[in-house]
Specification:
Blueprint: H1 9-26, E1 48-55, H2 61-68, E2 83-91, E3 95-102, H3 105-114, H4 116-123, H5 137-146, E4 148-149, E5 153-156, H6 162-182, H7 187-198, H8 216-222, E6 236-244, H9 250-266, E7 278-286, E8 290-298, H10 301-311, H11 313-320, H12 334-344, E9 350-353, H13 360-379, H14 387-397
Antiparallel strand pairs: 1-3, 1-4, 2-3, 2-9, 5-7, 6-8, 7-8
Helix pairs in contact: 6-7, 6-13
Length: 403
């Protein structure tokens, strides 16, 4: 949060403090709801999450681990609409976790149902899984709700639906192709290529009601959700940590976690915004005094750790400082901090997402470019006499969104 124009730092601090205090007195929700409240304003709606914790039948655990560790096994082969990221992993010798980030709760239920063949292979090793499998939506819904794990902190770097992100990413690629194709051409070539681009169905101002079929490229993208091994060359990856909380710190850390969700979701504040590689993060308390932390981030692990220690050390130390074995000097001691995380890292057996090859910066710049192009194409048509000049001006003003 930063002071607004015309508001002193002292006044801004008092106002922010009053808002946060209001959240504390009214009572921050003990768990982040997996369901979007109907009363929630449209501008605050965004990706949601749930975590399922399932008990594995003792005699089935070894077979389940073998299945999850098989890099050729992909339980999710079709239909990932409304799904951002998902992961499977196991802990101990009897517990399976499934985490998913989605736009609407029923996106997640239908996602599992339409991939029932692969999903049943995994959840079928767990106690209480419906006999009809994931294809039985009503029974699956009950099973998921019965096994929800409280998510006490949920952080999201953006509030945008998966379909809008996909449109923005495809639109950016198409715009770059238009620029390459038109470079060095005649004025007539520019106008013809621009006329085709203005009809791009991914533009925000495009009337999609006139399009009977979803474009082939978009259909293919929406149906791609490949679970990949942890050593995948993709740009985006998962991190999962399980660590014991100091007994005297439990209540304090739970209050901090819930306040963090309140700030992010209810106030629209980004407490971790200084970490430009973090897409999503969530924290739960399991087995009474263990912290389960899971994130989706860009780049390699070493850079990820260094970003923690150099960009958001204060925030991280407040939360992770409650954990047994946390470095005395905190996250600024990069070597000790990395060793702490590695020692408590949980292997993510399978991880998948809708845009594993796109960084957070690319996603945000594509969304911003999409809005800018919507405004530009509304006011500048192919027949505009100064099309070339206006396009050059647009590129100058938005060059950072194209790099």
């Amino acid at each position: 949060m930063t002071p607004k124009d015309g508001l002193s730092r002292r006044d801004f601090g008092r106002a922010a403090g009053a808002i946060i205090t209001t959240g504390l007195f009214t009572g921050c929700r003990p768990c982040f709801s997996p369901f979007t409240p109907e009363s929630e304003p449209l501008h605050r709606r965004g990706p949601r999450t749930f975590t399922v914790r399932a008990k594995v039948s003792p005699s089935h655990f070894r077979e389940l681990r073998r299945l999850l560790n098989d890099p050729t096994h992909n339980p999710f082969k079709t239909d990932a609409r409304g799904i951002h990221y998902a992961r499977f992993f196991t802990t101990g010798h009897d517990t399976l976790y499934f985490m998913v980030i989605y736009d609407e709760y029923w996106n997640a239920v239908h996602f599992l149902g339409k991939n029932a063949e692969g999903v049943d292979e995994i959840f079928g090793h767990c106690s209480g899984f419906p006999r009809g499998g994931a294809a039985d939506a009503e029974a699956l819904d009950r099973y998921l709700r019965d096994n929800f794990l409280c998510v006490e902190l949920f952080y999201r770097a953006y509030d945008t639906r998966q379909s809008d992100i996909r449109d923005a990413l495809v639109l950016r690629d198409n715009f770059l192709s238009f620029l390459r194709d038109s470079d060095g051409g005649t004025d007539a070539d520019l106008r013809a290529l621009y006329a085709d681009f203005v009809d791009d169905p991914h533009l925000l101002n495009h009337d999609k009601s006139k399009t009977n079929d979803v474009p082939a490229a978009l259909t293919a993208a929406n149906r791609t959700f490949q679970l990949t091994p942890i050593r995948s060359p993709d740009r985006v990856g998962p991190f999962t940590l399980l660590a014991r909380i100091k007994d005297k710190e439990l209540k304090k850390v739970q209050r901090l976690l819930r306040l963090g969700t309140f700030a992010t979701i209810d106030l629209g504040v980004r407490p971790l915004k200084n970490l430009p590689t973090l897409h999503f993060a969530r924290v739960s308390v399991v087995d009474r005094n263990y912290m389960l932390f899971a994130s989706v981030y860009d780049g390699d692990f070493i850079q990820y750790v260094e970003d923690f220690g150099t960009r958001i050390a204060k925030e991280i130390d407040k939360i992770f400082g409650s954990l047994v074995g946390y470095p005395m000097a905190g996250s600024r001691d990069i070597i000790a901090f990395k060793a702490f995380l590695r020692a408590r890292q949980v292997k993510t057996n399978a991880f998948g997402g809708s845009y594993l090859d796109r960084s957070l910066l690319q996603i945000k710049s594509s969304l911003a470019l999409s809005k800018a192009l919507a405004e530009f194409t509304q006011s500048v048509g192919p027949s505009d006499r100064r099309l070339g000049a206006k396009l050059r001006h647009f590129l100058h003003d938005n060059q950072l969104l194209l790099t």
